Every structure is written in structure tokens, then in C-alpha cells.
Fold each of these.
Amino acid sequence: MQQQLAYLFPTTQQASRVYHILKNDGVGFMSVRFHPDNYTVLATYRIEQTEGFDKTSSMLDELAELHGGSEVSVVS
């Protein structure tokens, strides 16, 4: 199953920082891009259907919070 999460940041600089962390720090199983507003980072990844906890989602939430962002709903 494919999971897409979006994180909104107060500034484009904060969004860019998180974008580059995800792109450059070896998260190879994840596709990362900017929403056209440049304040939102979109992360897409594949998860296996298990009954366990999605650690990737939790990691993304913590990273976004660390940089002043929060998860939002985005219509593509």
C-alpha cells in the first residue's frame, strides 16, 4: 500500500531544510517533493500491510515537528 503524507511549514526555508534532509540522508525508499506552494513537503512511500506500527510515519511527524511543521491534508 502506498502512503502519502504532507507537512506544512511556516517558511519555505524550513520546508526546504526538511526536504533536503529526506532527500540526502539515505531515505531511498521514499519519494519526496515540494507541493507547488513551496511551504509543503510531500513524502510518498510504500508500506507493507502489517498489523504493526508505521515507524516511518512517526519519524516524519517528529522531523516535521522539530522544524516547526505539522501534518496537513493536501489535494494533489
Note: The chain has two helices and four strands.
Amino acid sequence: MMKQRLAFIFIIQTYNMPKHTQVITIEITPERFLENCSDDELKELDLLIQSERYQSRIREKEIGFKQINKKDENTNKH
């Protein structure tokens, strides 16, 4: 399952005080992301995914996966 990492850098500085920097990393799975979307956000994501822009990217990736799988099948036939 693909995970996305988001890094947030918080910089807190007050007048005449030392600067404090903290990095926080959060892992979010696609499923967790979708579960936290509103109904309107899910509809918008669906419209974007169904658009030609993203469908062409999906088709390109599918062709690449098919070529890799076919190559693996030919390698295992020995």
C-alpha cells in the first residue's frame, strides 16, 4: 500500500527569544486520506480522476505494468 509522507516544519520565534525549529513527519495512506474527505471532495476527486488528463496518465502506467509483467513471465519460462 502506498503511503505519503508529509513533513511540517514549525518555526516559533518571539521577540528576544531563541528560535525553535521542529520537524514532524506524518504518514497518510490513500485509504485514510479518502476516509477523511467530505462528500464534495470525493466527488471532485472522482471528476478529476475521470478527466482525460488523469485517464491518459493511468493508461500510460497500465501499459508500463503490462510490459513489466510480460517481461517477468518470459523470464520465468526457462
Note: The mean pLDDT is 77.
